[in-house]
Amino acid sequence: MDSFYLPLGDDRWSSTVHTTGPWDARFQHGGPPAALLARAVERCAPRDDVLVARVTVEILGPVPVGEVEVRARVLRPGRSVELVEAVLAGDGRDAARAAAWRVKRTENPGVAAGDGPPPLPGTAVDLPADGWVDGYLSAVEWRFTTGHFAQPGPATVWTRLKHPLVPDEEPSPLQRVLAVADSGNGLSSELDLTAWHFINPELTVHLHREAVGEWVCVAAETTISPGGAGLATTRLADQHGPVGVGAQSLLVARR
């Protein structure tokens, strides 16, 4: 059980308790499925001369905590850019789909990406208690520099996976980022969690370089306008500086 998923063979996986989302013990948090889809993208017609520049994960329905199957294919092959699709199915239906653009590595000199993240704090925070289902929350180490789970408003937190995504395999930089990028809307909630839903049907992450090391910083904020829609945005970084940005469209409605 010391991983998010256990192999069943033939691209099938058993979801462990570490994937369980905070609202319902039957369904996974969005982070682990996104990371498993990222793994499938990386292993589909793998190439050393490309890196993933953008991933969009469409959440087609609740992802069950149980057996899931992942498949991937190259949708648009190319020498310089190519599009790869990965699909995760569970309970007899497609539950999530990822589309990833891979771009060719080049010798470009690089341009400064802006201010770096705050320093990594020395201690982790206590996890939320009443009203939350444990699982994913305890499978990630959270070290906040601003904000908190139960505190409305923007938040910045350093994250580290306590377990591998799959047994006997070090998570890749892309998997580490995707495993936590889906937490942006929960980290930066602007409304009372007990009274309001703010559900994201998708997650889009743009990356300009690969993350280095096991720590990923997520700086999140949420904007909610009248009419039922919201937008959660995140700045993603490692201890060397920014690596990309994420965004989640939100359905905002009373529970």
The share of residues in helices is 10-25%
Q: What's the structural domain tally?
A: 1
The CATH architecture can be named as Beta Barrel
| Name of the top-level CATH class | Mainly Beta
Beta strand count? 13
The CATH topology name reads: Porin
Q: What's the main sheet like?
A: 13 strands, antiparallel
Strand content: 35-45%
Head-to-tail CA distance between termini: 33 Å
Q: Which stretches are low in confidence, meaning pLDDT under 50 for 5 or more residues running? A: none
Calculate the mean pLDDT score and round it: 93
| Count of individual helical segments | 4
Would you give an account of this structure?
By secondary structure, the protein is mainly beta. The chain has one domain: Acyl-CoA thioesterase, double hotdog domain (Porin, Beta Barrel). It has helices spanning 31-43, 136-139, 173-181, 184-187; strands at residues 5-9, 12-15, 50-59, 67-76, 81-90, 93-104, 140-148, 151-161, 196-199, 202-207, 216-224, 229-238, 241-254. Strands 1, 2, 3, 4, 5, 6, 7, 8, 9, 10, 11, 12 and 13 form a 13-stranded antiparallel sheet that branches. Strand 5 (81-90) and strand 6 (93-104) form a beta hairpin. The protein is globular.
Question: Which properties best describe this structure?
Answer:
13-stranded antiparallel β-sheet, mainly beta, 4 helices, Porin
Helix and strand arrangement:
Elements: E1 5-9, E2 12-15, H1 31-43, E3 50-59, E4 67-76, E5 81-90, E6 93-104, H2 136-139, E7 140-148, E8 151-161, H3 173-181, H4 184-187, E9 196-199, E10 202-207, E11 216-224, E12 229-238, E13 241-254
Antiparallel strand pairs: 1-2, 2-4, 3-6, 3-10, 4-5, 5-6, 7-8, 8-11, 9-13, 10-13, 11-12, 12-13
